[in-house]
Design goal:
This protein is an alpha+beta fold and 365 residues long. Helix content is 24%, strand content 31%.
Length: 365
């Protein structure tokens, strides 16, 4: 019988133990996080048509999905963005964002495996339109985001999930009007078994938040019981942002999605980082056992329908995406970490890109 939290599951307790198992990130990886939007982050936003927005309010994590035309996010400057009015904003409680709170953004360009992650804080702002008089008080309600950190994320999660691979639309039958559950029921289990992509929202004691993607073949998340989930940690860049947050604050928000479905599964709970070999074997893929996993104690589950994931449009965009116009991750890393550009830095960028492509092929699991 599997042991649960408090019964010697091998939970990681500190950063030293965590890094002794996963290792430390390369200096280039540590340096890639920018304190403001650089030219590559700006270009990515100008091409992006889907943005995930994660935040926590009153102890509960939420992840909304915003869509629009390519470049729908308004870029004011290197440190300030406006998320324009969106139908998903109707799900935000009135009290939220009256004062700035920590948020994280996760941005897609369909067809591009690399993604963009942005951390900062956000609050409501009413922007006057020229069509309204100053006296009328009318205007557009936008969410102003103050950027505190940004980086281009590697494409492993997207590759493992097969997000951009066209497939049949999925009509997942569930009543989204049902109230949230405290336990994982049969519908939740069925959904998780078909899901190949999820996002984790975490926040540490200093209000630094992260919205981190996870991708795997369907069925790779293990449902241990109606109270516990096991989410594997696959090889990545070793930055460990989400795990470091969990060492500080164990609360976690998770949004599962099934490519081809407009139904989302949202879960709130608490997570511990486990190294127990019996647990880790449950989430092996191709006989590759992860070094660590997140053991999630579920507190709240609920389904939600979204109109932001128009999969036929997403897959069409992915087929016409011009990868040659988007710089390689190797070039981006060199540009972000090298002050002086030279022939040597260009060669380094190409070498790093070659290593990344080998890593994509040989080290997904």
């Amino acid at each position: 019988m599997l042991k649960m939290p408090g019964d010697n599951t091998g939970a990681i307790q500190n950063i030293e133990e965590l890094q002794s198992i996963i290792g430390k990130p390369h200096n280039i990886i540590k340096a890639k996080v920018q304190s403001k939007l650089d030219v590559h982050c700006l270009y990515f936003l100008q091409q992006s048509s889907i943005v995930f927005l994660g935040y926590r309010y009153d102890g509960r994590s939420e992840i909304l999905i915003l869509d629009g035309a390519m470049g729908f996010v308004d870029i004011l400057n290197y440190r300030t963005l406006h998320l324009p009015e969106h139908r998903e904003f109707s799900m935000i409680e009135n009290e939220v964002f009256q004062s700035p709170i920590a948020v994280s953004l996760y941005c897609w360009i369909p067809g591009i495996e690399e993604t963009l992650r942005i951390n900062g804080e956000a609050n409501w702002l009413h922007v006057k339109d020229r069509f309204f008089s100053q006296k009328s008080g009318k205007g557009r309600k936008v969410l102003r985001v103050r950027v505190k950190g940004a980086f281009i994320h590697c494409g492993k999660s997207v590759k493992r999930s097969g997000l951009w691979k066209k497939r049949e639309l999925i009509d997942f039958k569930v009543n989204t009007a049902h109230r949230e559950n405290e336990l994982i029921n049969s519908d939740h289990k069925k959904y998780i078994a078909q899901s190949s992509f999820l996002c984790l929202f975490t926040r540490n004691a200093s209000d630094r938040s992260e919205l981190s993607p996870r991708g795997d073949p369907p069925g790779s998340v293990s449902i241990i019981s109606n109270k516990y989930l096991l989410i594997p940690d696959r090889p990545g860049n070793k930055r460990l942002d989400s795990m470091l947050n969990l060492l500080s604050d164990s609360r976690i928000g998770i949004t599962f999605l099934i490519p081809g479905s407009d139904i989302l599964l949202l879960i709130n709970g608490q997570a511990s980082i486990v190294k127990d070999s019996h647990l880790l074997k449950l989430v092996a893929v191709n006989n590759k056992i992860p070094r660590l996993s997140l053991l999630v104690t579920v507190k709240q589950c609920r389904f939600r329908k979204t109109s932001s994931l128009n999969w036929p449009t997403i897959w069409t965009q992915s087929r016409v995406a011009d990868r040659s116009r988007f710089p390689s991750l190797g070039k981006i890393l060199i540009d972000q970490t090298t002050k002086k550009k030279s022939l040597l830095s260009s060669i380094k960028g190409k070498l790093i890109e070659a290593f990344i492509q080998i890593d994509y092929k040989k080290n997904l699991y």
